[in-house]
Amino acid sequence: MNMMFSIIIANYNYARFISDAINSVLIQDWPKFEIIVVDDGSTDESAQIIRSFGHKVKAFFRQNGGQREANNFGFAQSRGDIVIFLDADDVLVPGALRAIGSVWREGLSKVQVQMQRVDEQKNPIRNVIPRIPKDLSFKKILQWAYTTSEYPSPPGSGNAWSRKFLEKFFPIKEDYDAFTDSTCIAMAPYLGDIETIEVPFVLYRMHGENDSNLSNNNRNFSREIARSLKRHAAACDACKMAGLPPPSKRSLFRGPHLLQLRVASLRLTPEHKPLVSDSRKRALYDALLILFRPSFEKFYVRLIISAWSILALTTPEKISRKIIAKRFA
How many whole angstroms separate alpha carbon 178 and alpha carbon 13? Predict the structure, then answer.
């Protein structure tokens, strides 16, 4: 109960959501927390709304520099033992901080919770993420990270980070990904234990403008693959810090999620290939092999991914585009 949470909210033109995010922290039943809001040069009514909370938040207003720089600044202002980078369009569920605090222990890099996907009005849609396999252990997470560069993890708001962990690489340098969670998630298995709470303590708002909405632009798929290369570089740096052998670059060809992004990129924008050695032939080979490789995804899920990938890779372009659009709608 003596541990302090720092909730850092980087906001850019989310005036219609920022009040919900701040209020979701204010109603938490944990005695010690601070809310740090970094407005990243918003041009809407965000500043007025943030200032309306007065002394309840520590508010900072900066020129637009992107999420990474906003969170770097916010972390420098924070003093909590546990840090949550809450996206300005997401919401903490009541009891979230108490649940995280109840399982916290020395040696953790993070505690992760599930997230419920909701629409703009916070009505539940689709499934809870991530899917948590049975008998999840840190040993398995580390194995999956090494062999497939993937493990069951929520995006940004679903992670509560150890300050000691973050201090090892903050401020995040420009060589890493522009999105804070990408680097932190990649490094976490190599620099501490991970505890998982199988309860959706965060509402993950889907509104069409999310960075995760890949269907907005065909080039988003190659962008995501380029981000995976930066995550791999961050993971290698984390291993160096911990005195561990680095993960092989081959792991990028073994992940079920990344396979789907590779397939979409190879079909929609074949001229952009962040993974230089990638090809439709290699993706087809990997689509077959994911059925037999270690993964946190259940066999039937890998079977669906394998079948989808084979269809998307081998059908005529017009049909392939429809298959991809349906998957990422």
Answer: 18
Partner residues linked to 36 by β-bridges: 8, 58
Cβ count within 10 A of residue 70: 25
Predicted local confidence at residue 213, as pLDDT = 57
CA angle, corner 159, sides to 24 and 196, nearest 5? Answer: 110
**DSSP track, 61-126:** EE----HHHHHHHHHHH---SEEEE--TT-EEPTTHHHHHHHH--TTEEEEEEEEEEE-TT--EEE
- pTM confidence score: 0.93
Residues 6+ apart with CB under 8 A from 111: 82, 100, 103, 104, 159, 160, 194, 195, 196, 197
In sequence order, what DSSP letters do the residues of 39-57 get, joined into one string? Answer: EES--SSHHHHHHTTGGGS
Place of tokens 């509402």: 203
pLDDT in tens, 199-234: 999 999 987 665 655 666 788 899 999 999 999 999
Query: Taking the CA of residue 38 as centre, how many other CA atoms within 13 Å lie in the half-sphere pointing to its CB?
Result: 26
Sorted by where each starts, the structural domains of the chain and their CATH numbers stand as 5-205 (3.90.550.10), 245-327 (no CATH)
Distance CA 116, CA 125 (A): 8
Which region holds residue 243: left if phi is over 0, alpha if psi is between -120 and 50, else beta? left
Distance CA 63, CA 288 (A): 48
Q: Which two tokens stand for residue 273?
A: 């290939």
How many of the other CB atoms lie within 10 Å of CB of 239? 18
